[in-house]
Structures are given as C-alpha cells and as structure tokens.
Amino acid sequence: MPRARRRPAGPDMKGPEEKRTKTKNLGRASAQVENSSLQKTPVSEDSGEALSSYWLMKSEPESRLEKGVDVKFSIEDLQAQPRQTTCWDGVRNYQARNFLRAMRLDEEAFFYHSNCREPGIAGLVKIVKEAYPDHTQFEKNNPYYDASSKEDNPKWSMVDVQFVRTMKRFIPLAELRAHHQAHRASGGPLKNMALFTHQRLSVQRLTREEFDFILSLEEKEPS
C-alpha cells in the first residue's frame, strides 16, 4: 500500500506547516493550507454559471518520517495508484478545507513537489470527486485523528484527484521565481502568484492567466 505523506513547509522549505499524510495502511492521500477566509467558486455575471478554477497542490516526493510514517508521495506514486486516483485527505486547516470544498469536477491542478532537493511543478491532476467527509479524522491510529470532529458533523473534507500527465519538462521553483520577480515589475501573469505571495499555503488557487502561462513554459527552454 502507498505510504503517508506530509504537507511541505512551502517553497523555501523553511519553518513548520500543517501536514498532509498518505496513511500506509489505508492508502489515502492528504492536504492542508494556511488559514484565510473562505473563497467561493467564481460565478459568471452573464450566465450565472460557476467558472472553472485552477489549483496548485503540494506534496513531498522524498522519504521522511512523520510520527513513524513515511510521508513521501510523488507524482509517480500517484501514477502508480489504482486508476491513478487517490483521495486528498488529512486536511486540518480551515482554509485548506475551504479550498477543497470549492473544487469542482474536472478542474485541474498542478502537482507540485515540495520540501525536496529540487522543488517545482511535476505534473497535472484533475478533480474526479468533489469534497466529502475525510475518514482520517475519525481514525485513532491516523496521525491526523481529530477527537473534536464528530461523524454526524464532520469538520474536515477531502477530494479525489486523478493523474493526468507529467509535465513535458519539470518546471523548477527557481524558474517560477524568476518569472514572478520579472512580472512584479512588468505586470505579467505571475506577479501575484500565491506560491510567492502566500508561501505557506500548500493548496493554492491559480488564475487562468497564471495556469496558462505556466503551461506555456513547458514548450520553452529555461533561460
């Protein structure tokens, strides 16, 4: 069965952050984010229909023990799962939970390798099941058991994600940072990217412009 995984400490790998695990005995994935206000799914003023959102979700690709559990989970580990699908469980932060609850079927997210020798964007996943109660909050043997959460009123949610593809080339953090810094001066699409403006968030909402620009980097040689 797959092993547990932890939420990374952010792009500079400094300081503690809430953790996401993939429990070895349960074959589950997990996620979490820093606190902030609930973000609702955008709605088109013309049609009243919800607009798609885009996401970045971090996970650690290198082995490290957390309370005796190996927290490693890479894009390759996801690809090796049955149906290349797993649940994104273990969220114990309200903002993270709110992000997960805002996700809709078929929305895409970048799978970001964090807290490792070379952090960066490794692949794409999509949401294949919208938010539902996270079972790990009720399991006493799980590192993220929450005794205050009740089955008739669960505090924590998760989504299911499915592997889409690896990136045509790995997009390293250093390259993204260089674009962010340049765009701060020029007004480019990465000027306000949460990876740098809210570094502690391990699940982040992206704008369509940010998402498309990062996809375009696949076709370019790094400068």
Automatic annotation (TrEMBL):
Entry annotated with the keyword Mitochondrion: no
Keyword list, A-Z: Nucleus, Phosphoprotein
Highest taxon listed in the record's lineage: Eukaryota
Residues annotated as domain EVE: 53-216
UniProt feature, compositional bias: Polar residues: 32-44
CC annotations in GO: nucleus
Main location: nucleus
Compartment list: Nucleus
Entry keyword Phosphoprotein: yes
Pfam families: EVE
Region (Disordered): 1-49
Purpose: Specifically binds 5-hydroxymethylcytosine (5hmC), suggesting that it acts as a specific reader of 5hmC.
Name of the protein described by the UniProt record: Thymocyte nuclear protein 1
Organism listed in the record: Bos taurus
Gene designation per UniProt: THYN1
